[in-house]
Design brief:
A: about 160 residues, B: elongated
């Protein structure tokens, strides 16, 4: 058990997880920053936020993703960036799960805000995959948190 | 202490993100700019499940997809093939001739302008005068829009009705219904465009002329959102071409590419 803990919290793994997570978020943010109206449309399709907040979310969310991703890549404020990324992932998982539950087939808009022609069934399958993918990324956040706790318990 | 440090860093990151977003939006081109506060009345209304799922970019012909409509296909001169009553706002004007520059019907729509510039003469073919057009496609002030299929869209196009393309301008430039103007509901200048259109059609007679709005068909709602905006500013005769540009293109309707209508 101790050996497993050491392996999973080893700095070699931690730095790679941190870089991978940072790159994921930077890559996800850039297309949305380039085309805010398309991303706002994606936010609207989730049918969760009030109309007045759709554009604000469409404008600011990608920049939060970008700055958090850059922070992880550059090793600046990694603890805070990791926490914010974890919070965003939980939000995405909840938002997609709500739409899965009510049968609202939508494009995730996670990496590309351009609408893609798909059938309803394809969209629902993609949403299930996105939930699993985000859960995987949440595990990465968990690994970073665990590694920090092991390496510096006082934090 | 550590929690305070994390909160401070988190707040700094979020504030920096908001500032970056505001600056980038301020310097963005017209097509990529967003109004900071959106106006989407149906933002929390989940669309009804479509019974027959299909690709959104290539919808099947109008007569096959009109699941939420009453299909009426008369052989007479009345050309409407399908209608719905999609009004979702609570405030409904029932007058057939709304007063010039009256207040908008929804708070979310732009304020009605008071300009009195003479309206442009509506384009019409030799066979159709504006009076003919409004006779065949009468105003419907109690409904934000009426959905139509290709046959009616084509008839209105031939009669010189105004067509508005609700898709993104970049998509419009790749191909649109000939004569259609770009009116993307997701771009920041949409309210200005609607106001300008109201300036062009500031009298009751021209406001009653049919306007056809379309987007990409299928699950695309942009045309419906634009129709709601137009209805909110006293346009009483708006038609949504439900199957939109893919259907128009498939059926060989006149198409134009580029920035101009």
């Amino acid at each position: 058990m101790k050996r497993l803990t050491e392996s999973l919290t080893h700095p070699w793994l931690t730095i790679r997880v941190q870089l991978a997570l940072g790159i994921f978020f930077v890559v996800a943010a850039l297309p949305k920053i380039v085309d805010p109206p398309s991303f706002a449309h994606m936010v609207y399709n989730y049918r969760i936020l009030p109309g007045a907040l759709v554009n604000l979310m469409g404008l600011t969310m990608p920049w939060v993703e970008l700055l958090c991703g850059l922070a992880l890549i550059l090793g600046i404020w990694t603890g805070t960036a990791r926490t914010l990324i974890g919070a965003m992932l939980v939000t995405f998982i909840i938002a997609i799960s709500i739409n899965l539950a009510r049968g609202n087939a939508i494009d995730c808009g996670c990496f590309d805000p351009t609408p893609v022609p798909k059938t309803r069934v394809e969209r629902l399958q993609d949403m299930q995959f996105v939930v699993l993918r985000d859960l995987g990324m949440l595990l990465m956040v968990g690994q970073l948190w665990w590694a920090e706790r092991v390496l510096s318990p006082e934090s | 202490m550590n929690l305070r440090k994390h909160l401070l860093e988190a707040a700094t990151l979020i504030v920096a993100a908001v500032l970056c977003a505001l600056v980038s939006n301020a310097i963005a081109s017209r097509e990529r700019k967003l109004a900071l506060v959106g106006s989407y009345p149906n933002a929390q209304k989940v669309p009804e499940e479509s019974a027959a799922p299909g690709p959104t970019a290539s919808p099947s012909p109008a007569t096959e997809t009109a699941s939420a409509t009453v299909a009426v296909q008369p052989e007479t001169t009345a050309p409407l093939t399908m209608t719905i009553a999609p009004v979702t706002q609570t405030v409904v004007s029932t007058t057939t001739a709304p007063p010039k520059a009256a207040a908008p019907r929804t708070a979310a729509t732009p304020t009605a302008p008071t300009a009195t510039a003479p309206p442009p003469a509506p384009a019409a073919t030799a066979k159709s005068t504006p009076a003919d057009l409004t006779k065949r496609f009468p105003p419907h002030p109690d409904k934000a829009y009426v959905e139509i299929a290709y046959a009616d869209a084509d008839a209105l196009h031939n009669a010189g009705a105004l067509f508005l393309d609700a898709r993104r301008t970049s998509v419009y430039e790749q191909g649109h219904i000939a004569g259609a103007r770009p009116f993307s509901v997701w771009e920041s200048d949409i309210d200005d465009k609607v106001r300008k259109l109201f300036d062009e059609r500031s009298d009751v007679a021209t406001q009653a002329l049919p306007i056809v709005v379309y987007c990409s068909g299928g699950e695309c709602e942009d045309s419906h959102m634009l129709a709601q905006k137009l209805w909110g500013i006293e346009f009483n005769n708006v038609y949504v071409y439900r199957d939109g540009f893919p259907d128009w293109q498939k059926r060989g309707g006149a198409v134009h590419t580029g920035q101009t209508p």
